[in-house]
Design a protein that fits this description.
The chain is α/β, with parallel strands linked by helices. The protein has one domain: TIM Barrel. The protein has 12 helices and 12 strands. It has a 12-stranded mixed β-sheet. The structure holds S-adenosylmethionine and iron/sulfur cluster (SF4). S-adenosylmethionine is lined by residues 38, 44-45, 82-83, 85, 114-116, 138, 176, 178, 205, 207-208, 210, 342-343, 347.
């Protein structure tokens, strides 16, 4: 538009063009798992006796910073830090402090995290100070005993105190709730009233066929179509067009004025608009949550202190991002296609 001959001075951009996959989807959202460890053992996520990775396999905080920065340089606008439980990683605040420079420079729109909330009472203020504005907190029940049962060791009061601290620190909080048949399906209305009553959004997530081949994942599977139908009996759900670029679809609850999201990876294909990739705490890049193809980024990270090898590895990996995944609900009753738990991939 008349600017073709204008000299380009942004050499970084020339050297490091935005990451765009073969289907024209720009990679603008990266989830990074910073640890496989967790202080909870949610039954749908981890086994009781988890064996965690040796520390040397994990990316250091410096390596995580380099990796996230490489993605930001290549066009990532949103970074979500996850795990395992990100707030149990030692000195994790340093990573947020380092990454906040990209918010200041304007290259990054959002730095956020998904947490179980257990450590939030201590971390909410410092996180807000690094520029984090919105967080996701996972919470499946408001009953202390059921909470203890599903997390195998969590303390509901501690998580609720964490959520209060987050709100007081000015963070906007979205609740993530895994919908589990026979466990919390009688509580959905109460969870919505509680979340919306405090100005929080709530998103229901279907159990995904990840991790061990466990029969109870199939037993607990609840279609969000059924959840929606159940809620419609008592609440007026109005479809809204709000999208976040992710798999969630949103509705407004007329009675509360609040928003609820539904993440239905099993029942709907949301791949066409997929702008995201995930990196495990060992630096393995998964181009698609539903497929096993992956790229090792730790080797190029450790190969040298400059990022050339890393950038090449990113190019090669994104060129292999598949068009879509092939989750099927019926795989829940046979063998899950993807044998890694969410705590590894970073949900
Ligand atoms: N520990 C943090 C937390 O619980 O929020 C972050 C990591 S956790 C793996 C991220 C999200 O994945 C949580 O909301 C959790 O409920 C969800 N999740 C874990 N396993 C899942 C599964 N099998 N199906 C669906 N969601 C799952
Ligand atoms: Fe930990 Fe989050 Fe997995 Fe629960 S869902 S065990 S809190 S990583």
């Amino acid at each position: 538009m008349g600017m073709i001959n204008a000299p380009t001075t942004d050499l970084t951009l020339l050297d490091n063009p935005p990451l765009i996959d073969p289907f024209g989807r720009a990679i603008s959202y990266v989830r990074v798992s910073v640890t496989d460890r967790c202080d909870f053992r949610c039954t749908y996520c981890m086994s009781e006796e988890m064996r965690f990775l040796p520390k040397r396999d994990l990316l250091t905080l410096e390596e995580l910073d380099r990796l996230c920065t490489a993605f930001v340089t290549r066009g990532t606008r949103k970074l979500r830090i996850t795990g395992g439980e990100p707030l149990v990683r030692r000195d994790i605040l340093h990573l947020f402090e380092r990454l906040s420079r990209h918010l200041v420079s304007g290259r990054l729109d959002e730095l956020t995290l998904t947490t179980n909330g257990s450590q939030l009472a201590n971390f909410a203020g410092p996180l807000a100070a690094t520029g984090v504005q919105r967080i996701n907190v996972s919470l499946d029940t408001l009953d202390p005993e059921k909470f203890r049962a599903i997390t195998r060791r969590g303390d509901l009061a501690q998580v609720l105190a964490g959520i209060r601290a987050a709100r007081q620190a000015g963070l906007s909080v979205k609740i993530n709730c895994v919908a589990l048949k026979g466990f919390n399906d009688s509580e959905f209305e109460e969870l919505i009233a509680w979340a919306h009553g405090d100005g929080m959004e709530i998103t229901f997530i279907e159990v995904m066929p990840l991790g061990e081949d466990r029969a109870d994942q199939a037993d607990q599977y609840l279609s969000l179509e059924d959840v929606r139908r159940q809620l419609s009996a008592t609440l007026t759900l109005e479809p809204i067009s709000h999208r976040t670029g992710g798999p969630a679809r949103y509705m407004r609850v007329k009675e509360t004025g609040g928003r609820i999201g539904f993440i239905t990876p099993l029942s709907h294909n949301f791949c066409e608009s997929c702008n995201r990739v995930r990196v495990t705490c060992t630096g393995t890049l998964f181009m698609c949550l539903g497929q096993n193809d992956a790229a090792d980024l730790r080797t190029p990270l450790r190969l040298s202190e400059d990022d050339r090898a890393l950038m090449l590895a990113l190019d090669e990996a994104i060129a292999r991002k598949p068009k879509g995944h092939d989750f099927l609900a019926d795989r829940l009753v046979s063998k899950p296609r993807v044998g890694r738990p969410m705590s590894q991939t970073g949900g």
